[in-house]
Amino acid sequence: MPDHFFSSDAPAAPSARPLGGCARGCCGAAPRRRLFTAALIGSALAAAAGPAWAREGVEVGSQSSLSKLVSAEQIEQAAAQQYRQMLQKAAQQRALAPDGNAQLQRLRAIAERLIPYSFEWNERARQWRWEVNLIGSKQINAFCMPGGKIAFYYGILAQLKLTDDEVAMVMGHEITHALREHARERMGKTMATRGAIEIGAAIFGLGGGGRYLADMGGQLLTLKFGRDDESEADLVGMELAARAGYDPRAGVTLWQKMAAAGKGTPPQWLSTHPSGPSRINDIEVNLPKVTPLFARATKPLRRFEPARAAG
What we know:
mainly alpha, three-stranded mixed beta sheet, 12 helices, 51% helix
């Protein structure tokens, strides 16, 4: 990361507050009551419309039982520690966007719209201390670590000239990796190969298994997921964005831009998110499942300008 990427008289301090405060029903007594009332109405309408399993949206399989071999709390704690270290390093290099940065405000506004729709996919997400930060780097990269720790690199916004809809697709995709606990599943599969003794140690945070989980905390930023995980993240992320009022067709233009950026030296994001024609095709096939959700969704009142290329 270049020094002084974000101009400031002093290094920006890592933001410790959870994302969004009380905006959009994420907290507060009155928003909670509205959400509860809406849930009751939604349940009544669903009962009248048909069986409970007939949900509208994309279809993905159940999570692997291997993820249960590893403690979600441990992984989320390791992720929070790794995330905090990353922010501190960025702040020291003046590469952490201050709260007043326009693109950071953009990211947080989009996240606040997506997050309420994440709870259906993972109940733990209601208790996560969601954070969104922007790193001053020309890298084309973004991620969401377990526990709702989101980071975008300036390069992915500026070099790809992402629209709000495309930002929502990237963010929805990354959030899905956390919601569907793909990192936890990957670690569970690894633990399963180490034998029952070390699996038991991992569950109770003891012995070699516990040390392994601690070591894995440092690798959460660079985990490579399988094709099934990537497809799942594309589809669920697209649904989250559509429900939040962002055009799901942006999933196609996003990956077209990624494919173009991947010619020559592939960007960092493609090292953990491989692209290909089949990816765009899968998105197009599933668009009819989320287009009605987008059509009915409340659209964002504010639209943001794309990021400008850094000097």
